[in-house]
Amino acid sequence: MESISAADVLSCLRRIEQRGAIDTAHRALQNCGQVFRYAVATSRAPRDPCGDLRGALIPVSHVHYPTIIDPGEIGALLRAIDAYGGSMIVRSALRLAPLVFVRPGELRAAEWKEVNFEKSEWRIRAERMKSRVQHIVPLSRQALNILRDLWPLTGDCNHVFPGIRHLHVPMSENTVNVSLRSLG
Fold first, then answer.
1. How far apart are CA 73 and CA 184, in angstroms?
2. Cα of 32 vs its chain's centroid, Å
3. What CATH class is the domain 6-53?
4. Closest by Cα among 164, 109, 170 to 135
5. What single DSSP character describes residue 159?
């Protein structure tokens, strides 16, 4: 460990960068730093050379996703969703999304067994949540109406929003995104 220099680590990281994996190069540097800090703490290395590489890698460019913050534009989007001419299943997903404020993956993979019409709630199982904690979504009257209208179409399926080709899997993650793009 003590023979490894900052230049040695940087040489390896540059090869990762040359592949275009900038984020991976940064994570590899973090991992190397953790290993070296452990080596220092256990007297296996005199110092962590990774600290010398601060700013040496190409910066990670963060992608900012489009968002609507103008109330007028939000209203226009909601009106466009109501006028959406695609399938009822996709239109229902589009209409339900702003009422429940869950991640798109959780919405498209919603299961009928998670929905309780009597309690007006949707209990998303812990296994499906990023935080691994059950999430309870209160359902408004409007959300319940959307789900009740959808029940005759997909109530026999496990998923509220089943895939077009295979009814036992949820709709594609691109379905809602493509539909939103088609709305402008």
1. 11
2. 27
3. mainly alpha
4. 109
5. B
Instruction: Give pLDDT tens digits for 20-77.
Output: 999 999 999 999 999 999 999 999 999 999 999 999 999 998 887 778 888 898 899 8
Q: Would you give the end-to-end CA distance of the chain in angstroms? A: 56
- Number of Cβ within 10 Å of residue 170's Cβ equals 21
Per-residue confidence band for 184, with pLDDT thresholds at 50, 70 and 90: confident
Extract the tokens encoding 163.
């895939």
Structure letter (DSSP) for residue 116 = E
E strands in 27-167: 115-116, 121-124, 135-138
Do 108 and 173 contact (CB within 8 A), yes or no? Answer: yes
Domain boundaries of the chain, sorted by first residue: 6-53, 71-182
8 A C-beta contact, residue 117 and residue 180 = no
> What CATH class has 71-182?
mainly alpha
pTM: 0.65
Residue 53 is given by DSSP the state: G
CA distance 80 to 103: 21
Pair of tokens at residue 35: 């290993």
